[in-house]
Amino acid sequence: MNVDLNCDMGEGYGVYRLGLDEDVMPLVTSASVACGFHASDPGTMHRTVRLARRHGVAVGAHPSYPDRIGFGRRVLEATPEEVHDDVLYQVGALWAFCRAEGLRLRYVKPHGALYNVAAKNLSVALAVAEATKAVDPGLWLVCLSGSGLVEAARRTGLRHVQEGFADRAYARDGSLVPRSVQGSVLHDAAHVEEQVSRMVGERRVRSIDGADVPIDVGTICVHGDTPGAVGLIRAIRERLEREGIEIRPFSQQEDKT
Amino acid sequence: MNVDLNCDMGEGYGVYRLGLDEDVMPLVTSASVACGFHASDPGTMHRTVRLARRHGVAVGAHPSYPDRIGFGRRVLEATPEEVHDDVLYQVGALWAFCRAEGLRLRYVKPHGALYNVAAKNLSVALAVAEATKAVDPGLWLVCLSGSGLVEAARRTGLRHVQEGFADRAYARDGSLVPRSVQGSVLHDAAHVEEQVSRMVGERRVRSIDGADVPIDVGTICVHGDTPGAVGLIRAIRERLEREGIEIRPFSQQEDKT
Amino acid sequence: MNVDLNCDMGEGYGVYRLGLDEDVMPLVTSASVACGFHASDPGTMHRTVRLARRHGVAVGAHPSYPDRIGFGRRVLEATPEEVHDDVLYQVGALWAFCRAEGLRLRYVKPHGALYNVAAKNLSVALAVAEATKAVDPGLWLVCLSGSGLVEAARRTGLRHVQEGFADRAYARDGSLVPRSVQGSVLHDAAHVEEQVSRMVGERRVRSIDGADVPIDVGTICVHGDTPGAVGLIRAIRERLEREGIEIRPFSQQEDKT
Amino acid sequence: MNVDLNCDMGEGYGVYRLGLDEDVMPLVTSASVACGFHASDPGTMHRTVRLARRHGVAVGAHPSYPDRIGFGRRVLEATPEEVHDDVLYQVGALWAFCRAEGLRLRYVKPHGALYNVAAKNLSVALAVAEATKAVDPGLWLVCLSGSGLVEAARRTGLRHVQEGFADRAYARDGSLVPRSVQGSVLHDAAHVEEQVSRMVGERRVRSIDGADVPIDVGTICVHGDTPGAVGLIRAIRERLEREGIEIRPFSQQEDKT
Known about the structure:
By secondary structure, the first copy, chain A, is an alpha/beta fold. Chain A has helices at 21-24, 42-54, 80-100, 112-120, 122-135, 148-156, 189-201, 229-242, 250-255, and strands at residues 2-9, 30-34, 58-62, 107-108, 140-144, 159-165, 204-206, 212-214, 219-222, 246-247.
């Protein structure tokens, strides 16, 4: 059994730093790199891709609605065509930094509000998937488990992986409890570890209201910008390893097929 | 004998239109497409690349300093490393739109103040050339004739083409007379035609102060955003054709070698 | 009887021009000036305020969601607190240009998607009204007739004027038919004139589905960016004058009280 | 004897935080608040002005060239007219937040590259001064001691205060040693304290090459974004108080006259 650990990276901007990229990079297997629309800038993207290369971490693009002030967390009434072109632009930009560092861009994972909208709105999900495929049909699409993004990946013929969240509470329908709801973000390390362990080992997650929800994930999203993040990621790794689960990039696994 | 006609394209932004792209595209052989830093946005880039494809026009990236309000015409004290990453970002973004339309990106031509700074500052020119090469070593670099960009292309091993301007006055040293100087932009059609004809046919240009300056150009920059632009480009084409000069993309020529 | 004619102005950006401000300014009594979030920039704002001063036109601020690429026409999931601060910022910026030109800023009219959201969402409307009042309690708020903005103006104690649209179709409930619906924008001059004449003279408007809807407007919004705009505004003026309706700034009227 | 302590504040942006505003605010007498061009955004500006109000700290505007990625530290080839309008825009925006919090905006201090350019280029300095005066002729201008900004303030009739830097090395001509030069930023607490003490008490500063340079300052700029910043500011305060120098806002002092 195996699983991938992915983390949002390169979310600084100009003089601003966000997240502990240097500390987190050695602990994950995939880096979802911001592309300048919700965070990051050309210099930050370059540094982040270089850091991923040094640690042998797979690089994915993390495109967003154009909203730096809101960090891409606010829904924007963009048409599918606008989303398509925004994603194309961002993925192409990050692809160039991968080229410059001799890496192959591996996947696309929409960020924040775009991820949530795409999970529920198939037109938007298809726009994301088609833009991804237009850049490189060999790219993977990272999808909220059970969401419309999975359907969009299937329809466009893109490889995809379903994603689980280590520190986010789930609703009974398998969707994420919105950040605005109390209890939506898990802070207790034991709870987080347990959630990851069950997701990967038993393919189930306990919802916020106590139901057992089936889930099928190939990658676990961890966060690198909260206090104690590094310790928590280390604890997750150790737990998974103790349970005999190998941690490796999802994108690598399937390339072998 | 042959020459390329290139024009800056896709310089609208959001609801704004600039230039007569639809009218000019059928008349040129290369389109230098803005990449979102001085002008353009993802939707405009997509429309412009699609238009170029329809007319069989070669597409190049037209990266700039990040300065939309100043249209990339203001010098910004950016380091060569910042220029490198800014160019990489922009070229990658446009590359993606070319991929989506089944085209190959052909060349990079820096815009406005970046073009002028790169012409005189070798570190900046090298930053542009290295970013171009990092995306694709098969890309061409479009260089002000006789400038530092030519030297940078040579040092990095990039193919390059020297550019002449149909409607700009030249100084005795072969540089462009700055836009702020009276007489720097030629408005007289006969004068423009004559300048192009001599540049291509005799490899010389008359400087603003009357000297004969040697010049060796493979592409002529025409403008599509001035009154009478379309008529002027047509007149240039007819003049060149009358003189037996074939108009074709510079990037195509060398691919045949 | 009297009415005000207002027009969105200063909607260019950098090198881009939009609308026929020079031609329209002499024909209207109030100018709603963009503040840099959906359109405009400091130089454009200054030129526009100066132009309004020259023609004795009352100046209002036209704040928007931060969305230049979408021209402020896309709904953004901003909190009321974010809207409040965004409006405060924009109104303050325009206020400074009025000060520099010796004018008094007269009113605030939210733009595009913000106008539409505020019309239906009282929290957003209150955020706009409170930010307006915070800058100057003597400012007017321009409100879609019968909308939540009117209620917000009342609650905050702001003076307000209700607005009718010369060239937009109305729904039976007095709201504007969305731009995405066929027939939402009136192009026929006679139809536009008739709509304005009835709004002002009879306080009624014919809805898109033929109902007679009561309406009470103190200002009519005309547009200056469509073909034939200037002729249409002139026709509206003449029609109103023929009917004995005086055209003067709404903000001036009440100052006399 | 008395002096003012000012600190750049509100330099976060969206989710990003920069500087220890909450800790530093109680220790200074003037807050130079970023206005959205090099840093800050409407929400950050509001929070910062509110914080200043709570601590009775005088608020000034800290306008910049439009360059968020470069944090306003890169020279931009803007015309004096562009600088004028950019400053007007930013000062007006911050003025509105002061109004909303019941404060009076007290001063303008240009940021980063704009401060340095204005110090040496009188046209740019005059543009800054005139924009400041246009908003409110009662505003103060904060000027590098002995620089062109002082001259610009005199010519426009603006009140001004000369500024000294606690932790920056000086050249023999009284200008700041550029940040790119080794030793330009002082890190040794004793050295910093000593420099402040001499500036205020003896009206002299030791240049980086050992000369004694006369200087006449009414405000000392301290920084709140370096490790140990809070301790250092506290040490400066204690030193000044031990030497019998009162710390109070420069803007308050002169209002009493």
